[in-house]
Write a structure and sequence with these properties.
Pfam families: DUF1285_C, DUF1285_N. The protein is α+β, with helices and mostly antiparallel strands. It has two domains: about 80 residues, Roll (duf1285 like fold), CATH 3.10.540; about 90 residues, duf1285 protein (duf1285 protein fold, Roll). Helix content is about 15%, strand content about 40%. The chain is built from three helices and 14 strands. The strands form three sheets. The chain has a six-stranded mixed β-sheet. A six-stranded mixed β-sheet has the order 9-8-7-12-11-10.
């Protein structure tokens, strides 16, 4: 399936341009496909977002982007690669994606935030794509909802960028608005 890949750097795009790219993206209807489970794919997504097949990293970004379009999270929390004729389990160590870049416009309640994932997919934080913070042993672990139960771990530098924006705005509790919704960044709800 041909797919236009957004620029590698979203800094030069406006959020209007990003929203247009997001709206134009067509993904396969994996939620409608229910083939018989065929086994394990011998693939895994490491916690740093690296995709592996039979223990070796997949070095072709286009191949990773292709596999990401057929990735689905099942009701039991497992992950599968699904086509109309087969379904294969894939191991995911943490989140299926990593949010590696942030683009923000506006301030306060009028702010909008877009994230570029390690697969070059763009996601705008809003009610359908909320941020959440999980408190872990190593500190807060921020996540962004991507689609169908799939999430992106927000890379530590991007999380620090979010925290700095919230501190600069003096948000109480600490957090940011995007898409008309407030997202706490301290793990509170």
């Amino acid at each position: 399936m041909p797919e236009s890949v957004p620029p590698a750097d979203i800094a030069g795009l406006s959020l209007t341009e990003i929203a247009t790219l997001v709206a134009e993206r067509k993904l396969p209807p994996v939620e409608k496909w229910n083939p018989t489970h065929c086994g394990h794919s011998d693939m895994r997504i490491a916690s740093d977002g690296t995709w592996f097949h039979q223990g070796s990293p997949i070095g072709r970004p286009a191949m990773v982007r292709l596999f990401a379009t057929i990735l689905r999270r099942e009701a039991d929390g497992s992950h599968v690669l699904v086509t109309p004729v087969e379904k294969l389990t894939i191991d995911v160590e943490d989140a299926a994606f990593v949010a590696v870049e942030l683009k923000t416009e506006g301030a306060g309640e009028t702010r909008s935030m877009a994230f570029r994932l390690n697969t070059d997919e763009l996601v705008v934080a809003d009610a359908d794509h909320p941020l959440r913070i999980v408190q872990g042993e190593d500190g807060p672990r921020p996540y962004l909802a991507v689609r169908g139960g799939l999430e992106a771990l927000i890379a530590r530098p991007v999380y620090y960028e979010l925290i700095n924006l919230a501190i600069d705005e003096g948000a109480e509790p600490i957090g940011l608005w995007s898409g008309g919704r407030f997202f706490p960044l301290d793990g509170g709800e």
